Amino acid sequence: MSRHLRRALVGITAAVIALLSLGPSAQAHGFTSTVYADVSSGEKGHIRTELKLEYDLFVVSAADTEADDPLFRTGNAAFEDGDTAAQAAALNTHAESAVSYVTERFSVTSGGAACTPARVGDFTMGRQEGVPYAGLLLDWACPGEGGDRQVRSELFPDAETYVTGTKTIVTYEIDGRSGSAALDAGHPSFSVGQSWYERFWEFFRLGAEHLLGGVDHILFLLALIAGSRRLREIVLAATSFTLAHSVTFMLAALGLVDVPSSVVEPVIALSIAVVAGWYLWRIRRRGDHAGELDLGPGPVTGSGGSAGRGRLGLDRAGRLRLGVVFCFGLVHGLGFAGALGIDEAFSWTLLWSLLVFNVGIEAVQLAIIALVFPLLALLRHRAPRAALWATGAISAGVCVMGLIWFTQRLFGL
What we know:
Elements: H1 3-20, E1 34-41, E2 46-54, H2 55-65, H3 69-81, H4 84-93, H5 95-103, E3 106-110, E4 113-114, E5 116-119, E6 124-128, E7 131-141, E8 149-153, E9 167-174, E10 177-183, E11 189-191, H6 196-213, H7 215-227, H8 231-253, H9 261-286, H10 316-340, H11 348-382, H12 384-411
Parallel strand pairs: 1-9
Antiparallel strand pairs: 1-2, 2-7, 3-4, 3-8, 5-7, 6-7, 8-11, 9-10
Helix pairs in contact: 1-11, 1-12, 2-3, 2-5, 3-4, 6-11, 7-9, 7-11, 7-12, 8-10, 8-11, 9-10, 9-12, 11-12
């Protein structure tokens, strides 16, 4: 085998091993939380923030940080019982601890000077992504008038060890400006006066990081690449996947479709196993000819003596695989929407944020295809049998990982 072929094989294998080495417990959507903040103008010199925080996480974090054991006991009991009224009552009874936890980690400044928060009304309860969320309305008295308004959120930091990668999704309409921002540990603050391209970059980065941190989505993509015999196939598969997940991503994030994560996550894991297993089945059935198209009688086109008939230039197996990928893409879109968890009425500001988030996802997806598929194509051209072994090994590893995740997520292991 030539030096170039060895490099191609090593490159493909190393990329997959690096992903698989993250271990069977790697999840795209586990143990994270999202805070929602709506910022608006109040009375003269005042700013209003309406915060939504995941209830059970809020209770545990506030009780631990503020050393308020009664809050934990009553709040946790109300959570276990699913009693919404008792949940609100627990927070209102221990409002001092709960508000203190928030205001020490969430702040508003005006012209560089800190604004002073005051709770408005009682805590309320609602639901986001199928779980209880607590609502807190704060009124911030800001010194002076005007000035650059900044919002900072460091709620539920990784150091508390309860969750990792907390995001705060901010929507604002203040000082004649409206928009949205995504905050996390690496970028905890933003200015209301930020430019449109700064807002674009925040949600683009969030989408890119979500896919890069979502090992299950990446393995699904690798299974598609390994099982694609021609450039046309991976392009059509990626396009089908993109169209499908874009539809459900938008519908779910806008609150028009609501499917529990307990259903979405196992199906995502199963989709990985099915797509990878599909190619393994083809290898078993066709052996060394697994990489060839089978379009039946017709004029010969392309390499390998494959016939050129069929819609989209695909054989029957390729078209069927495309349909399966589209269906699974619909489910993956629900998983992507869980990264933002936005559940509110339509607005152009929200739509802009969702679209940019999706662009970030697609950019990483295309980058992976551009990196891996040419190496695989080179290997198939120079050493078809070695390519068959490499793609078979990749598919087998991905299939096993998908089945492990499916079992874990189905039974909550």
